[in-house]
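Deliverable D2.4 — example input (structure tokens):
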């Protein structure tokens, strides 16, 4: 048996999703003539109570479009140091938008009350202008940590007091919402722009959406084109996103629970030093003796694939293509490896 816990980006379209894709009416989206793309954008915007949305190839693009629309060169963006926009988007904010990052040391990737006020710079000629706050929910590098709406509101309102715009990197936002019971519209009312990913736990093969005001999305559409993100008959891909929003949101609870099952198993293993709090579909744990790479080689021999997240840190990510049977297999193998790994020397 092979179990792919590397990332929830590994999901493949279900047969029903493929059927929806093949049946999609399409046109040229650069000319705004693809009816399926238009319907996806309208559906997502309506669900979040926002004016408009823009379908893009990736979450990196939607995040960077938001930065481009909210800032000017020589501005700075405030975010937590574990944020995806800082850690995993190639530093492209400096290239495309000419901005710098003001990094906060929060808690598991979450900005804490009071930190934004401390971060905002005075209006001196030799300092960048603090212009934009970005939160990530759930935070990948924070172990899938969840902001509640109340927590996010406190931080965003603090940013508003200093004239900052607020963007939400909501790549895995729906993983949070199925746990908190909050609605997309609550989050749409809070932020100036939101990015959501369709190709992670929701199971679409490609695509993210940027949501915001009609004015912001019109600007973002032009930047999308010059960034190389204009797509033609993109409705085949948008149909997968529509299917995902209609059919794959509620089932994210299963992914979250399966990650917690893995966490509960890992915390009992002698070769594990600690397991980070597991709230959603990401489980991060730290090894006592072995390096992450050496441990992953042992798992690979058992048919279990995962990803290193530090010298002795590993990430498991559950998703649509990981079944209950596969989780049970991983649990059994993790337990069986206890005697073999407990006293293993550091190596790899």
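Example output (designed residues):
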């Amino acid at each position: 048996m092979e179990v792919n816990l590397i990332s929830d980006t590994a999901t493949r379209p279900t047969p029903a999703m493929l059927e929806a894709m093949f049946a999609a009416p399409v046109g040229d989206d650069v000319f705004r003539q693809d009816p399926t793309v238009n319907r996806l954008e309208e559906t997502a915007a309506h669900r979040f109570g926002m004016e408009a949305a823009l379908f893009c190839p990736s979450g990196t693009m939607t995040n960077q479009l938001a930065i481009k629309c909210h800032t000017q060169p020589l501005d700075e963006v405030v975010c937590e140091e574990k944020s995806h926009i800082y850690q995993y988007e190639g530093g492209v904010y400096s290239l495309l938008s000419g901005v710098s990052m003001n990094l906060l040391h929060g808690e598991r990737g979450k900005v804490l009350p009071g930190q934004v006020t401390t971060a905002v710079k005075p209006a001196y000629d030799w300092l960048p202008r603090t212009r934009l706050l970005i939160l990530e929910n759930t935070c990948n590098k924070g172990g899938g940590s969840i902001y509640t709406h109340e927590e996010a509101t406190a931080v965003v309102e603090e940013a508003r007091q200093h004239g900052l715009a607020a963007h939400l990197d909501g790549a895995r936002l729906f993983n949070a919402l199925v746990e908190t019971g909050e609605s997309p519209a609550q989050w749409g009312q809070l932020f100036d722009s939101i990015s959501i990913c369709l190709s992670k736990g929701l199971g679409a093969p490609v695509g993210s959406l940027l949501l915001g005001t009609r004015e912001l999305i019109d600007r973002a559409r032009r930047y999308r084109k010059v960034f190389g993100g204009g797509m033609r008959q993109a409705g085949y891909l948008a149909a997968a996103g529509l299917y995902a929003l209609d059919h794959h949101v509620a089932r994210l609870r299963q992914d979250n629970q399966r990650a917690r099952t893995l966490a509960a198993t890992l915390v009992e293993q002698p070769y594990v030093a600690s397991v980070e709090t597991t709230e959603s579909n990401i489980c991060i744990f730290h090894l006592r003796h072995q390096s992450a790479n050496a441990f992953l080689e042992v798992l690979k021999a058992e048919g279990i694939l995962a990803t290193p997240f530090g010298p002795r840190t590993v990430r498991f990510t559950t998703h649509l293509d990981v079944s209950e049977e596969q989780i049970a297999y991983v649990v059994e193998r993790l337990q069986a490896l206890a005697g073999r790994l407990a006293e293993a020397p550091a190596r790899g």
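DSSP finds 15 helices and 13 strands in the chain.
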